[in-house]
Amino acid sequence: MTVQRAEDPAERTAAGAIYPLLSTAVRHQPRDISLTAASTLATVDRTGPRRITDLAVTEGVTQPSMTALVTVLERAGLAERRADPRDQRVVLVALTAAGADYLRSRRRAGTESLARLIGKLPPDEIAALLAAAPALRHLHELDNEARAAGHPGPAPTEEPIR
Fold first, then answer.
1. Distances from the Cα of 157 to the Cαs of 5, 12, 13, 14, 115, in angstroms?
2. 3-state SS of 64-129?
3. Per-residue pLDDT tens over the stretch 123-153
4. Is residue 98 part of a domain?
5. CA distance 110 to 124
6. Is residue 75 one of the residues assigned to a domain?
7. Which residue in 25, 124, 151, 152 could disulfide with 146, CB within 3.0 to 4.6 Å?
8. What angle, 0 to 180 degrees and rounded to 10, lies between the N-to-C axes of helices 63-75 and 52-59?
9. In a domain, 76, yes or no
10. Distance between CA atoms of 140 and 138, rounded to whole angstroms?
11. Any idea what the CATH number is for the domain that residue 47 is in?
12. Total domains in the fold of the chain
């Protein structure tokens, strides 16, 4: 496996500060569904009903794996299959009201957990995080755009992970 390397030391420093927070955020999330299931629900919430093949590409899994995952989400009442109004032969995966409620609850729990952690910082560091919030949101938007285009992860380079 290879990974794209940041050339700028400032980019690496920023990434090195942000990356450990990802595992912190994951650790504080409910574990009642897999990360891929939660990501799939979030994708459908963000983009609207999608074909299973599209979801598989966006989430970086095989179509059979996504089909199985959608079946699990359907049985849990979080997603549903419905016919595409433009082409009745096509099946779309849509979020149910319970799925939307679940995502809101999950996001709220994650936000509250991080807010408690941030509350332990001194005021000047909280101000620095507030100043960085627009850039952090932009990073999230860039990732969403890449995933929507079918590029779930960073572009590989010649340098292997060590």
1. 8, 16, 20, 20, 36
2. HHHHHHHHHHHHCCCEEEEEECCEEEEEEEEECHHHHHHHHHHHHHHHHHHHHHHCCCCHHHHHHH
3. 999 999 999 999 999 998 998 888 777 665 5
4. yes
5. 23
6. yes
7. 151
8. 110
9. yes
10. 5
11. 1.10.10.10
12. 1
